[in-house]
Protein backbone atom coordinates (compact mmCIF):
# COMPACT_ATOMS: atom_id res chain seq x y z
CA UNK A 1 0.00 0.00 0.00
CA UNK A 2 1.26 3.46 -0.91
CA UNK A 3 2.24 5.66 2.03
CA UNK A 4 1.38 9.33 1.45
CA UNK A 5 4.51 11.47 1.17
CA UNK A 6 6.68 8.73 -0.30
CA UNK A 7 6.75 10.43 -3.71
CA UNK A 8 6.12 13.89 -5.15
CA UNK A 9 5.27 12.48 -8.61
CA UNK A 10 4.02 9.05 -9.70
CA UNK A 11 4.57 7.90 -13.28
CA UNK A 12 2.08 5.34 -14.60
CA UNK A 13 3.94 3.05 -17.02
CA UNK A 14 2.86 2.61 -19.72
CA UNK A 15 0.33 3.90 -22.22
CA UNK A 16 0.72 3.61 -25.98
CA UNK A 17 0.37 5.86 -29.01
CA UNK A 18 -1.87 4.60 -31.82
CA UNK A 19 -1.04 4.97 -35.49
CA UNK A 20 -3.29 8.03 -35.63
CA UNK A 21 -1.30 9.55 -32.72
CA UNK A 22 -4.11 9.16 -30.19
CA UNK A 23 -3.28 7.86 -26.72
CA UNK A 24 -4.55 4.48 -25.56
CA UNK A 25 -4.19 2.14 -22.60
CA UNK A 26 -2.03 -0.95 -22.97
CA UNK A 27 -4.38 -3.03 -20.82
CA UNK A 28 -8.16 -3.00 -20.38
CA UNK A 29 -7.59 -3.15 -16.62
CA UNK A 30 -6.14 0.36 -16.76
CA UNK A 31 -9.50 1.85 -17.70
CA UNK A 32 -11.96 -0.76 -16.37
CA UNK A 33 -15.08 0.18 -14.40
CA UNK A 34 -14.82 -2.53 -11.75
CA UNK A 35 -15.65 -1.97 -8.07
CA UNK A 36 -12.28 -0.33 -7.43
CA UNK A 37 -12.10 1.36 -10.81
CA UNK A 38 -9.31 0.91 -13.33
CA UNK A 39 -5.65 1.45 -12.49
CA UNK A 40 -5.70 4.99 -13.90
CA UNK A 41 -8.52 5.92 -11.55
CA UNK A 42 -6.88 4.22 -8.57
CA UNK A 43 -3.54 5.95 -9.11
CA UNK A 44 -5.20 9.34 -9.48
CA UNK A 45 -7.20 8.66 -6.31
CA UNK A 46 -3.92 8.79 -4.36
CA UNK A 47 -4.17 12.57 -4.73
CA UNK A 48 -7.00 12.44 -2.19
CA UNK A 49 -4.55 11.00 0.36
CA UNK A 50 -1.71 13.32 -0.64
CA UNK A 51 -2.80 16.75 -1.92
CA UNK A 52 -0.21 18.12 -4.31
CA UNK A 53 0.85 14.70 -5.62
CA UNK A 54 1.43 14.78 -9.38
CA UNK A 55 0.47 11.79 -11.54
CA UNK A 56 2.06 11.46 -14.97
CA UNK A 57 1.20 9.04 -17.79
CA UNK A 58 4.27 7.50 -19.41
CA UNK A 59 4.31 6.41 -23.04
CA UNK A 60 6.55 3.48 -23.90
CA UNK A 61 7.64 1.75 -27.07
CA UNK A 62 7.53 4.96 -29.11
CA UNK A 63 10.28 7.28 -30.29
CA UNK A 64 9.66 10.99 -30.75
CA UNK A 65 11.84 13.74 -32.14
CA UNK A 66 12.36 17.16 -30.62
CA UNK A 67 9.57 18.63 -32.76
CA UNK A 68 7.08 16.39 -30.97
CA UNK A 69 8.16 17.73 -27.56
CA UNK A 70 7.75 21.25 -28.89
CA UNK A 71 4.23 20.56 -30.19
CA UNK A 72 3.13 18.80 -27.01
CA UNK A 73 4.33 21.62 -24.79
CA UNK A 74 2.73 24.25 -27.02
CA UNK A 75 -0.59 22.37 -26.96
CA UNK A 76 -0.91 22.56 -23.17
CA UNK A 77 1.64 24.45 -21.12
CA UNK A 78 -0.10 23.48 -17.86
CA UNK A 79 0.96 19.84 -18.22
CA UNK A 80 4.34 18.51 -17.11
CA UNK A 81 6.33 17.12 -20.01
CA UNK A 82 9.20 14.76 -19.18
CA UNK A 83 11.35 12.16 -20.91
CA UNK A 84 13.23 9.08 -19.74
CA UNK A 85 16.62 9.04 -21.45
CA UNK A 86 19.72 6.89 -21.77
CA UNK A 87 22.76 7.13 -19.53
CA UNK A 88 25.06 6.04 -22.37
CA UNK A 89 27.19 8.91 -23.69
CA UNK A 90 27.54 7.53 -27.21
CA UNK A 91 23.77 7.21 -27.57
CA UNK A 92 23.31 10.74 -26.23
CA UNK A 93 25.67 12.04 -28.93
CA UNK A 94 24.00 10.10 -31.73
CA UNK A 95 20.34 10.29 -30.75
CA UNK A 96 19.50 13.46 -28.81
CA UNK A 97 19.34 17.17 -29.57
CA UNK A 98 19.90 18.05 -25.93
CA UNK A 99 19.76 21.83 -26.20
CA UNK A 100 16.43 21.71 -28.07
CA UNK A 101 15.01 19.19 -25.59
CA UNK A 102 15.97 21.55 -22.78
CA UNK A 103 13.69 24.23 -24.21
CA UNK A 104 10.56 22.08 -23.99
CA UNK A 105 10.96 19.46 -21.25
CA UNK A 106 10.24 20.15 -17.59
CA UNK A 107 12.31 17.21 -16.32
CA UNK A 108 14.62 14.60 -17.80
CA UNK A 109 14.81 11.21 -16.08
CA UNK A 110 18.29 9.81 -16.71
CA UNK A 111 18.13 6.02 -16.50
CA UNK A 112 21.31 5.63 -14.46
CA UNK A 113 20.97 1.89 -14.01
CA UNK A 114 21.49 -1.27 -16.05
CA UNK A 115 25.14 -0.36 -16.60
CA UNK A 116 25.81 -4.04 -15.92
CA UNK A 117 23.47 -7.00 -15.66
CA UNK A 118 22.83 -10.68 -16.15
CA UNK A 119 23.39 -10.43 -19.91
CA UNK A 120 27.08 -10.38 -19.00
CA UNK A 121 29.00 -13.50 -17.95
CA UNK A 122 30.52 -11.88 -14.89
CA UNK A 123 29.26 -10.05 -11.82
CA UNK A 124 28.79 -6.29 -11.88
CA UNK A 125 26.84 -3.48 -10.25
CA UNK A 126 23.74 -2.26 -12.07
CA UNK A 127 24.16 1.35 -10.93
CA UNK A 128 27.61 2.34 -9.61
CA UNK A 129 27.96 5.94 -8.50
CA UNK A 130 31.59 5.93 -9.66
CA UNK A 131 33.78 3.49 -11.61
CA UNK A 132 37.05 3.32 -13.50
CA UNK A 133 35.21 3.72 -16.83
CA UNK A 134 32.34 5.93 -18.02
CA UNK A 135 29.62 3.42 -17.15
CA UNK A 136 28.54 5.06 -13.93
CA UNK A 137 25.91 7.39 -12.54
CA UNK A 138 28.08 10.43 -11.84
CA UNK A 139 29.53 10.46 -15.35
CA UNK A 140 26.10 10.13 -16.97
CA UNK A 141 24.55 12.96 -14.97
CA UNK A 142 27.49 15.27 -15.65
CA UNK A 143 27.50 14.36 -19.34
CA UNK A 144 23.88 15.39 -19.81
CA UNK A 145 24.65 18.69 -18.08
CA UNK A 146 27.72 19.25 -20.27
CA UNK A 147 25.60 18.67 -23.38
CA UNK A 148 23.30 21.52 -22.41
CA UNK A 149 20.55 20.18 -20.16
CA UNK A 150 20.15 22.45 -17.10
CA UNK A 151 21.12 20.60 -13.93
CA UNK A 152 17.85 21.51 -12.22
CA UNK A 153 15.98 19.52 -14.88
CA UNK A 154 18.08 16.37 -14.53
CA UNK A 155 16.78 13.57 -12.30
CA UNK A 156 18.93 10.59 -11.27
CA UNK A 157 17.46 7.10 -11.62
CA UNK A 158 17.54 4.65 -8.71
CA UNK A 159 16.80 0.98 -9.38
CA UNK A 160 14.86 -0.83 -6.66
CA UNK A 161 15.97 -4.13 -8.14
CA UNK A 162 19.28 -5.82 -8.69
CA UNK A 163 20.95 -8.37 -10.94
CA UNK A 164 22.16 -11.75 -9.78
CA UNK A 165 24.56 -14.45 -10.88
CA UNK A 166 25.14 -18.05 -9.95
CA UNK A 167 28.90 -18.08 -9.40
CA UNK A 168 31.09 -20.57 -11.22
CA UNK A 169 33.25 -20.74 -8.09
CA UNK A 170 31.73 -19.62 -4.75
CA UNK A 171 35.24 -18.89 -3.48
CA UNK A 172 35.67 -16.29 -6.23
CA UNK A 173 32.91 -13.88 -5.29
CA UNK A 174 34.27 -10.39 -5.86
CA UNK A 175 33.51 -7.93 -8.63
CA UNK A 176 33.79 -9.36 -12.19
CA UNK A 177 33.61 -12.94 -10.92
CA UNK A 178 32.52 -15.43 -13.61
CA UNK A 179 28.94 -16.65 -13.43
CA UNK A 180 25.62 -17.18 -15.18
CA UNK A 181 22.18 -15.66 -14.44
CA UNK A 182 20.89 -16.57 -10.99
CA UNK A 183 17.72 -18.68 -10.77
CA UNK A 184 14.43 -16.82 -10.25
CA UNK A 185 13.54 -15.46 -6.83
CA UNK A 186 10.10 -16.35 -5.39
CA UNK A 187 7.97 -13.38 -6.43
CA UNK A 188 9.60 -11.67 -9.41
CA UNK A 189 10.28 -15.06 -11.07
CA UNK A 190 12.88 -13.64 -13.46
CA UNK A 191 16.23 -15.27 -14.18
CA UNK A 192 19.11 -13.07 -13.07
CA UNK A 193 17.03 -10.34 -11.49
CA UNK A 194 15.29 -9.69 -8.18
CA UNK A 195 13.42 -6.97 -6.34
CA UNK A 196 15.09 -5.27 -3.40
CA UNK A 197 12.62 -6.87 -0.99
CA UNK A 198 13.75 -10.30 -2.23
CA UNK A 199 17.49 -9.65 -2.34
CA UNK A 200 17.53 -8.38 1.25
CA UNK A 201 16.20 -11.74 2.40
CA UNK A 202 18.50 -14.18 0.59
CA UNK A 203 20.84 -14.22 3.60
CA UNK A 204 24.57 -14.57 3.18
CA UNK A 205 27.00 -11.67 3.56
CA UNK A 206 26.70 -8.06 2.45
CA UNK A 207 29.89 -6.52 1.03
CA UNK A 208 30.59 -2.86 0.24
CA UNK A 209 32.52 -1.70 -2.82
CA UNK A 210 34.17 1.52 -1.67
CA UNK A 211 35.07 2.64 -5.19
CA UNK A 212 31.61 2.27 -6.69
CA UNK A 213 29.77 3.18 -3.46
CA UNK A 214 27.57 0.12 -3.91
CA UNK A 215 26.79 -3.05 -1.95
CA UNK A 216 26.64 -6.60 -3.17
CA UNK A 217 25.39 -9.70 -1.40
CA UNK A 218 26.81 -13.22 -1.56
CA UNK A 219 24.85 -16.22 -0.33
CA UNK A 220 26.46 -19.55 -1.16
CA UNK A 221 26.96 -19.48 -4.92
CA UNK A 222 24.52 -16.59 -5.45
CA UNK A 223 25.77 -13.03 -6.06
CA UNK A 224 23.53 -9.95 -6.25
CA UNK A 225 24.46 -6.35 -6.99
CA UNK A 226 21.85 -3.81 -5.95
CA UNK A 227 21.16 -0.45 -4.31
CA UNK A 228 20.46 -0.33 -0.58
CA UNK A 229 19.88 2.42 1.97
CA UNK A 230 23.59 3.28 2.22
CA UNK A 231 24.22 3.50 -1.52
CA UNK A 232 21.08 5.56 -2.09
CA UNK A 233 22.18 8.00 0.63
CA UNK A 234 25.61 8.29 -1.02
CA UNK A 235 24.01 9.04 -4.37
CA UNK A 236 21.58 11.59 -2.95
CA UNK A 237 24.41 13.34 -1.12
CA UNK A 238 26.40 13.59 -4.36
CA UNK A 239 23.29 14.73 -6.25
CA UNK A 240 22.57 17.48 -3.75
CA UNK A 241 26.18 18.70 -3.57
CA UNK A 242 26.28 18.97 -7.35
CA UNK A 243 22.98 20.85 -7.64
CA UNK A 244 21.00 18.39 -9.75
CA UNK A 245 17.21 18.50 -9.78
CA UNK A 246 16.23 15.32 -7.94
CA UNK A 247 15.74 11.57 -8.29
CA UNK A 248 13.25 9.00 -9.49
CA UNK A 249 12.96 5.24 -9.02
CA UNK A 250 12.08 2.20 -11.04
CA UNK A 251 9.89 1.17 -9.36
CA UNK A 252 7.68 1.58 -6.28
CA UNK A 253 6.56 -2.04 -6.22
CA UNK A 254 10.10 -3.44 -5.97
CA UNK A 255 11.06 -1.44 -2.88
CA UNK A 256 10.28 -3.06 0.48
CA UNK A 257 6.66 -1.92 0.51
CA UNK A 258 5.69 -4.39 3.27
CA UNK A 259 8.64 -3.81 5.60
CA UNK A 260 9.72 -7.45 5.36
CA UNK A 261 13.48 -6.82 5.10
CA UNK A 262 15.54 -7.05 8.31
CA UNK A 263 15.26 -3.28 8.87
CA UNK A 264 11.46 -3.58 9.01
CA UNK A 265 11.04 -0.18 7.31
CA UNK A 266 8.50 0.20 4.53
CA UNK A 267 9.78 1.88 1.36
CA UNK A 268 13.27 2.02 2.81
CA UNK A 269 14.94 3.10 -0.45
CA UNK A 270 12.42 5.86 -1.12
CA UNK A 271 12.80 7.00 2.48
CA UNK A 272 16.58 7.22 1.99
CA UNK A 273 15.97 9.56 -0.96
CA UNK A 274 13.62 11.72 1.09
CA UNK A 275 16.03 11.87 4.04
CA UNK A 276 18.62 13.67 1.92
CA UNK A 277 16.52 15.58 -0.60
CA UNK A 278 13.65 16.46 1.75
Description:
This is GH18 domain-containing protein. The chain is α/β, with parallel strands linked by helices. The protein has 2 domains: 9-62, no CATH class; 77-277, TIM Barrel, CATH 3.20.20. It has helices at residues 39-44, 46-49, 66-75, 89-95, 98-104, 137-146, 196-199, 229-241, 268-277; strands at 9-17, 23-25, 54-59, 82-85, 107-110, 154-159, 161-167, 179-181, 193-195, 205-209, 214-219, 222-225, 246-250. Strands 7, 8, 9, 10, 11 and 12 form a 6-stranded antiparallel beta sheet that branches. A 4-stranded parallel beta sheet has the order 4-5-6-13, with helices on one face. Strand 10 (205-209) and strand 11 (214-219) form a beta hairpin. Helix 3 (66-75) packs parallel to helix 5 and helix 8 packs parallel to helix 9. The mean pLDDT is 95.
Distance between the termini: 21 Å
Helix percentage range = 25-40%
> What gyration radius follows from the Cα positions, in whole Å?
19 Å
Tell me the name of the CATH class of the largest domain.
Alpha Beta
- Unreliable stretches covering 5 or more consecutive residues: none
CATH topology grouping of the largest domain: TIM Barrel
State the major sheet.
6 strands, antiparallel
Q: Which CATH architecture of the largest domain? A: Alpha-Beta Barrel
Question: Any idea what the shape is?
Answer: globular
The averaged pLDDT comes out at: 95
State the secondary-structure class: alpha/beta
Assign the CATH superfamily of the largest domain.
Answer: Glycosidases
Number of DSSP-assigned strands: 13
Continuous helix count: 9
What portion of residues belong to β-strands?
Answer: 15-25%
Amino acid sequence: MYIPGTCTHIFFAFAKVNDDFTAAAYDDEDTSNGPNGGYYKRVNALKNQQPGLKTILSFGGWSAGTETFKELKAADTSKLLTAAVTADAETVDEGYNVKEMAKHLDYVNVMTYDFHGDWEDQTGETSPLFSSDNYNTAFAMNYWAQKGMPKEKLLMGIATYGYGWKLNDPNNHGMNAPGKPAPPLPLTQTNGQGAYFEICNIGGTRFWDATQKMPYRVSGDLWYGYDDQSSVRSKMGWLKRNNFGGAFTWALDMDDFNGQCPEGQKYILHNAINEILG
